[in-house]
């Protein structure tokens, strides 16, 4: 009998999470995610801190806003022009 209450609590939490997930998914349906494509470039900043008292490292990356231009970055140099 001692396991009934904890089990009921776990089930209630799972039901609430499932309900909330459904609400969020319905509210976001049809919305575009990510950045809108266009001309120009995005600047992305990557930071790393080890947490061990050492210094951190940060680096900026620029990537094209156009998805096709972005995809071309990953094509090997000898495959261009085909």
Please tag this protein with its features.
82 residues; extended; alpha+beta; 2 helices; 38% helix; single chain; two-stranded antiparallel ribbon
Summarize the structure.
The chain is an alpha+beta fold and 82 residues long.
Chart the SSEs and their pairings.
Elements: H1 4-28, E1 41-48, E2 57-64, H2 67-72
Antiparallel strand pairs: 1-2
The residue-averaged pLDDT reads 84
Per DSSP E runs of 2 or more residues, the count of β-strands stands at: 2
- Numbering strands along the chain, what is their spatial order in the largest sheet? 1-2
Task: Report the end-to-end length measured between terminal Cα atoms.
Answer: 70 Å
CA-atom Rg in angstroms: 23 Å
SS class: alpha+beta
What does this structure look like?
This protein has a two-stranded antiparallel ribbon with strand order 1-2. By secondary structure, the protein is α+β, with helices and mostly antiparallel strands. The protein contains 2 helices and 2 strands. Strand 1 and strand 2 form a beta hairpin. It has a domain at 41-76.
């Amino acid at each position: 009998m001692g396991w009934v209450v904890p089990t009921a609590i776990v089930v209630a939490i799972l039901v609430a999470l499932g309900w909330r997930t459904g609400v969020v998914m319905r509210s976001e349906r049809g919305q575009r995610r990510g950045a809108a494509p266009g001309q120009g470039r995005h600047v992305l900043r990557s930071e790393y801190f080890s947490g061990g008292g050492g210094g951190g490292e940060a680096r900026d990356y620029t990537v094209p806003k156009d998805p096709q231009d972005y995809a071309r970055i990953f094509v090997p140099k000898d495959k261009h022009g085909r």
